[in-house]
TrEMBL record:
Lineage: Bacteria, Pseudomonadati, Bacteroidota, Flavobacteriia, Flavobacteriales
Residue span, FAD-binding domain: 6-340
GO MF annotation terms: FAD binding
Pfam family, one: FAD_binding_3
Annotated organism of origin: Polaribacter butkevichii
InterPro entries: FAD-bd, FAD/NAD-bd_sf, Geranylgeranyl_reductase
Protein name: FAD-binding domain-containing protein
Lineage: superkingdom: Bacteria
Length: 389
């Protein structure tokens, strides 16, 4: 029979949200387990773009971590993002001269490995390569069983296991919520030509039966990450086949097709979901809290989920310290985590929901965007100053 291992805190998932939680807990000298079903380096379907909170979170986690991010040979940076509203109008978001970047690009296989390599040898007990198969609340703690048979009893659990979180489904009883999620497909291409100068990000709003977002992000190895997606419930309602749509865009879209005329796809199309249900689902309860995608913290409009996830991990770790030293892990004492997340993200994420809803109405949105262009650029600058490095 297996001997049950005991720990005070167990993080499930070692993506950006789980690793940020772990690094912050280690800074607070709190020993913990961190579990992931994969061994690292491992890939994750993503656009590979890092903005806003990713910088802020890395700076909080440590100046040395941020410095090694900046000089990492596989990560590149840019001062410009262009949002194409249609073939004629666009909004440009440029970083000011005194700041280095507005967006960085890092393949997730490299970025997540970079974060994992910063986990503490002293405080983070790492269990990678076997996923959580069972999890339940018991009298003495949360019982966790891994696929390899290992059994763990933890006083407290952090659900950092992404969009299809087992912690969210078993402990919080949350269901997959297609109304508050996007579905995206993505793939890498080589030999893409005529990319914008200075590694600028290209984002296009494409109106078909529904609104779709198309992203072209350059990478350090000369490849390009392209992705396409939109609201999950609309994709289902209108029967949109994202792979057909994105292939059609790179073949026929008059502003895109030339770039891809000699390009070759590397690997397969991959699809995954981006949840933005924060505020609509339970994210804390007796002996657990959720971070990142498990908590539905992605930005509904521009899909930042890495940075918000990392920032939620930092906020989670500070709350765990408080609960451990003072208040206990009851549902009531964990409410403070909900409040702290609301304070940090509430307004921004609500604004992103409004923007996504408004963007559905093409004529209205284009007219408003044209009219308010200067104001939007100013607002984005304020967001960057407040929520970035
Ligand atoms: C196509 C696409 C493009 C995107 N582009 C961007 C972008 O450019 N920028 C951006 O900021 N965000 C982007 N996102 C969103 C971003 O990928 C997520 O928001 C981010 O990965 C969330 O981080 P996380 O740590 O919460 O979850 P994840 O990165 O999903 O990490 C969860 C971890 O938990 C592990 N896990 C899962 N289940 C178990 C289990 N049962 N037991 C143990 N371990 C488990 C997984 O192996 C994984 O390592 C994109 C998403 C998609 C789908």
């Amino acid at each position: 029979m297996n001997k049950i291992e005991k720990t005070t805190v167990c993080i499930i998932g070692a993506g950006p949200s789980g690793t940020a939680t772990s690094i912050q807990l280690s800074k607070l000298k709190i020993p913990h387990y961190i579990i992931d079903k994969s061994n690292f380096p491992r890939d994750k379907t993503c656009g590979d773009g890092l903005i806003l909170y990713a910088y802020k979170a890395m700076k909080i986690l440590g100046d040395d971590l941020f410095a090694s991010f900046l000089k990492h040979p596989k990560f590149i940076h840019s001062k410009k993002i262009t949002l194409h509203l249609n073939n004629r109008s666009k909004i440009e978001f440029k970083e000011t001269d005194d700041r280095d970047m507005i967006i960085s690009y890092a393949k997730r296989i490299d970025f997540d490995q970079f974060l994992v390599s910063h986990l503490s040898e002293t405080y983070a007990n790492q269990h990678f390569g076997s996923g959580v198969k069972e999890i339940r609340d018991e009298a003495e703690g949360v019982f966790i069983k891994l696929k390899n048979g290992k059994e763990i009893l933890s006083k407290f659990v952090v659900g950092a296991d992404g969009a299809k979180s087992i912690v969210a489904s078993k402990l919080a009883n949350n269901k997959i919520d297609k109304k508050h999620a996007s579905t995206f497909v993505s793939a890498y291409f080589k030999d893409v030509i005529d990319l914008p100068i200075g590694n600028a990000a290209e984002v296009r709003m494409i109106y078909k039966k529904m609104l779709l977002f198309f992203y072209v992000f350059p990478l350090s190895d000369g490849q390009v990450n392209i992705s396409l997606g939109g609201r999950a419930d609309h994709i289902k309602k209108y029967g949109v086949n994202l792979v057909d749509e994105i292939q059609n865009i790179i073949k026929n879209h008059k502003k895109v097709k030339n770039k891809f005329k000699n390009a070759t796809k590397i690997g397969n199309w991959r699809g995954w979901s981006i949840p933005f249900h924060f505020g609509n689902h339970k994210i804390t309860g007796e002996r657990f809290l959720l971070v990142g995608d498990a908590a539905g913290l992605a930005n509904a409009f521009y899909k930042e989920g890495i940075g918000t996830g990392m920032m939620s991990g930092i906020i989670a770790a500070k709350n765990i310290e408080r609960c451990l030293n003072k208040d206990g892990f009851s549902e009531a004492s964990l409410k403070k985590y909900d409040e702290d997340l609301q304070k940090e993200f509430g307004r921004l994420l609500k604004f992103s929901h409004y923007a996504l809803r408004a963007a559905k109405y093409k004529g209205f949105f284009l007219a408003m965007a044209g009219l308010l262009k200067k104001k939007i650029e100013q607002k984005v600058h304020r967001i960057i100053k407040k929520r970035s490095y």
